[in-house]
Amino acid sequence: MFEELISSISNLILNIIGVLGYAGVFFLMLLESANIPVPSEIIMTFSGFLVSKGIFNFWLVVFIGALGNLVGSLINYGIAYRYGHKAEKILSKLGLMNADEFRLAENWFKRFGLFSAFIARLLPVVRTFISFPAGIFKVSLWEFSILTFAGSFLWSWVLTYLGYLAGENWNFLSPYFHQFDFAILILILVGLLWLIYHRIIKKMIR
């Protein structure tokens, strides 16, 4: 049952991207970030496969995927900014999220502050809900947008690159991504620390 559902969603995603190209990637990533259950793991790994075939440009599709995520997040931010905690009831009635998911995102935001907008984009579940507490607490739209785009760009880059490496076998990756989300986050953070050390700290020491 679950495998059939995933297969149906995958086929729908492939068809949309096949017809709309980059616009399809943007639209699907927007939906994912606006709490519509469309897995970015499938969207961006398939896009990576298309990069390997010379159909998509790597950096352009990564940028478009991140931009779609940002726009979807801004929709959620705007809803929460306008309606506050009433947004929880509205979205629950629409079946887009439940109280537990809302509390999880809110607790993340209380714990990590505005930086959670960046961290959450690299984690399962909370990444699509973190925009709501940001809107409720009326944080800076400019700062929220920058951090959200940065986190989304990293996530899109990782998925696209994995799809590019996997090539024809890209579809074998998607069922396992949620098992490795935290590992991917750790790898990204280690990479960032390495970059900061070699590009900034070493220069300061010299």
From TrEMBL:
<protein>
    <recommendedName>
        <fullName>VTT domain-containing protein</fullName>
    </recommendedName>
</protein>
<feature type="transmembrane region" description="Helical">
    <location>
        <begin position="176"/>
        <end position="197"/>
    </location>
</feature>
<keyword id="KW-1003">Cell membrane</keyword>
<feature type="domain" description="VTT">
    <location>
        <begin position="38"/>
        <end position="165"/>
    </location>
</feature>
<keyword id="KW-1133">Transmembrane helix</keyword>
<dbReference type="InterPro" id="IPR032816">
    <property type="entry name" value="VTT_dom"/>
</dbReference>
<dbReference type="InterPro" id="IPR051311">
    <property type="entry name" value="DedA_domain"/>
</dbReference>
<feature type="transmembrane region" description="Helical">
    <location>
        <begin position="144"/>
        <end position="164"/>
    </location>
</feature>
<dbReference type="Pfam" id="PF09335">
    <property type="entry name" value="VTT_dom"/>
</dbReference>
<dbReference type="GO" id="GO:0005886">
    <property type="term" value="C:plasma membrane"/>
</dbReference>
<keyword id="KW-0472">Membrane</keyword>
<feature type="transmembrane region" description="Helical">
    <location>
        <begin position="12"/>
        <end position="31"/>
    </location>
</feature>
<keyword id="KW-0812">Transmembrane</keyword>
